Every structure is written in structure tokens, then in C-alpha cells.
Amino acid sequence: MDSNQYVIEVLNVVKQFQNTYQCFKDTFSNKMPPNDKNDGTIPLMLYHKNGNLVEEVGIDGEESGVGSFTSYFFRVEEIDPTANKAIMTLIKPFDMGSKPTLDLTELYRLEKTFIFIEVKLEHISAVQCISPRLMNRALPIIEPKWES
User: Fold this and answer.
1) Within a domain: residue 141?
2) Which of 50, 85, 70 is nearest to 115 (CA)?
3) Per-residue pLDDT tens for 41-50?
4) What is the dihedral of CA 108, 110, 111, 113, to 10 degrees?
């Protein structure tokens, strides 16, 4: 099995987990925590054969006021093994100050967009899944410290 088949197999497993979670959530929505905003997205990063991260640019809508942004993070939407490609959603990375970031040490939250891209899988050598807890993560509430 070549590395391309492994990439396709991993993406298929990720897609199955996303579908299973969404089905579970749809069935048991009344049992889910009210603050569960995740739609089952398993964010992932893709690596080129040369070891560099796959980086894509997205044009953002008016609501967030960001304009364009760059991201290393994706969500699997469709996989076409015969054409050796996948359709993915671009995921926007934010730091703790809710500013877009590419610095992985500053990453605090990920937000799914409606920007779809096509990825040719022959150029991909590895897939790294990221914690789904980063999706739509709320900022912590920091209370002022009062001295008595």
C-alpha cells in the first residue's frame, strides 16, 4: 500500500467519525449539553511530501471583519479516491485575543467556515488530527482580582 492509499484511508476514517457524531447528536440532541456547538468536526492538518504544512488562503465574509486569512486547518467533506482528491472546508484559527493566527503555539480556537477547497491527495504525505475541543471554544472568563 503506498502512502497515498494511507492518506485516503485516514481521511475516510475521519469522515466516518464526523458522520457518526452528527448522527448521534441529531438523534440525542435533547441529551447533549446545551453548550455543545461542535458539529462533529475533527480538524486536521495536512503535510506535503516535502514535510511542509499545506497552507490555504480564504476570503472571509463581512461578519467577522477579517478580510482574508491563511490557515493550516481543514475539515473533510468528501473524498474521491478514484480522482485522488478531497473536498475540504477551511477552518479559521484564532489566538486567545480572537485574532487570526498561524502561530501554532498561540492557537486557542478554531472556527469552521463555508469556504470549500479541493485538495489533490497525490501531494499529501501525512494527516494530523487536532483536538475537536478547539472548535468554537469559548474564551475563559477572567474575573478581576480584588484585594481586601
Assistant:
1) no
2) 70
3) 899 999 999 9
4) 140
Task: List, for the chain, all residue ranges whose pLDDT scores fall below the cut of 70.
Answer: 1-3, 25-26, 28-38, 61-66, 147-148
Could you list the residue range(s) of the whole structural domain that residue 86 is in? 3-134
| Location of C-alpha cell 477547497 | 117
Q: Which distant-in-sequence residues (6+ apart) come within 8 Å of 48 by Cβ?
A: 54, 123, 124, 125
Q: How many domains does the chain have?
A: 1
CB 74 within 8 A of CB 111: no
Task: Please give the helix or strand (H or E) that residue 57 lies within, else none.
Answer: strand 56-59
Is 148 part of any domain? no
What pLDDT is recorded for position 121? 94
CB 116 within 8 A of CB 89: yes
Closest to 61 measured CA to CA, from 85, 98, 103, 92: 92
Q: What is the pLDDT of residue 10?
A: 93
In a domain, 146, yes or no: no
Sign for the pseudo-dihedral over CA of 105, 90, 32, 11: negative
